[in-house]
Design a protein that fits this description.
Length: 344
């Protein structure tokens, strides 16, 4: 359904045409777009909520821009638009989800309440998921658990995009990781970052707009450093920190692919072309702080305040304030992007 059907008001931002949405309007717009691609109501609901949440946190790379990858994936068969994850458990704290070639978000939604209950009762819980499309905004999952009073760590893998030092070709995905912890002031500590120097979607966006990328982000097909985003797409991304970043990528790969039974990045089909699902993996570990140290949230808030006074950046603060502003003032999305998504 085209954006105009919502009769929303276009507003000028940075001289470009933008369209404003309330959060509910944006979720409804994305849901209808997904349903037009044959998505079940459950898939459309889950993906719409996650997409709009990322956009509202100003994480545009995995917001509306990333939605184009899902829409083309539904059309090509890389994502099953009606897949219902197969959920099972092992013991009282281990949950498993086979996404069955569907989106990653629905498996987390299906297990969220059970994981929270298990962690409250036992001190910890874990979710292992395999056979999904890419993870989307990994920080969305950890932040939701942190708002429920739990510490959360999440890792995910995907198709090989990164060439690490000394390797002959691409070896790992960007292999993101995210961590979040609840605090007494109601704003959880949270970070969500790739183990590569930059996320693939940021380079793809630069290529689509004709922009350059910073040094150290990628190499071209010959292994030479490049600032040309198109050359980077034909080459490979680079890890941050050289071998240290590569070590973190390997750790994420072992947890997100090895432990879950998902495809290794080397064996994962591309997420942006072809007809096969990338078969990605994701692992989430949650801890109930009071089982370890009563008063954790108060202690963390005190420590974060002290660090902030020393000039230390509080991870996740800006994104969560962006969400609060979006809940009050809505979000704005470029009309060109909305038209592109509608055309898909």
């Amino acid at each position: 359904m085209p954006a105009a059907s919502l009769n929303l008001k276009a507003v000028p931002l940075n001289t470009a045409a933008y369209r404003s949405f309330t959060i509910d309007e944006a979720v409804g717009w994305v849901k209808r777009l997904c349903e037009s691609k044959g998505c079940s109501q459950a898939v459309a609901d889950s993906l719409a909520r996650a997409t709009v949440a990322a956009q509202a946190r100003s994480n545009e790379a995995v917001g509306f821009r990333h939605l184009a990858d899902y829409l083309s994936g539904f059309s090509s068969g890389r994502i099953d638009p009606r897949a219902e994850p197969r959920i099972s458990s092992s013991g009282s704290i281990i949950f498993k989800s086979d996404a069955r070639s569907g989106i990653a978000q629905l498996g987390i939604d299906r297990c969220f309440d059970s994981m929270c209950h298990a962690a409250y009762e036992n001190g910890m819980a874990a979710l292992s998921q395999c056979n999904s499309f890419t993870s989307g905004e990994l920080g969305d999952y950890t932040l939701r658990f942190a708002k429920a009073g739990l510490i959360a760590l999440a890792v995910a893998n995907g198709p090989a995009l990164v060439a690490v030092p000394g390797a002959k070709g691409k070896t790992y995905s960007t292999n993101p990781l995210s961590f979040a912890a609840p605090s007494a002031d109601g704003i959880p500590l949270m970070f969500d970052q790739a183990c590569s120097a930059a996320a693939f979607v940021n380079i793809a966006h630069a290529a689509s707009t004709g922009g350059d990328i910073p040094d150290g982000w990628a190499v071209d097909q010959h292994g030479n450093g490049t600032r040309n985003a198109l050359e980077a797409l034909g080459g490979a991304l680079l890890p941050f920190g050289g071998h240290r970043g590569a070590n973190l990528m390997l750790m994420v790969e072992v947890l997100a692919a090895g432990l879950t039974g998902a495809n290794w990045s080397l064996d994962s089909p591309a997420f942006h072309q072809g007809t096969q699902t990338p078969g990605c993996g994701l692992l989430i570990l949650v801890l109930a702080p009071d089982f370890f140290s009563p008063g954790f949230e108060r202690r963390l808030t005190s420590q974060l305040t002290r660090l902030t006074q020393m000039g230390v950046h509080r991870a996740g603060w800006e994104r969560q304030h962006s969400m609060m502003e979006s809940q009050s003032n809505g979000i704005s999305v470029s009309v060109d992007l909305l038209n592109e998504l509608s055309s898909l």
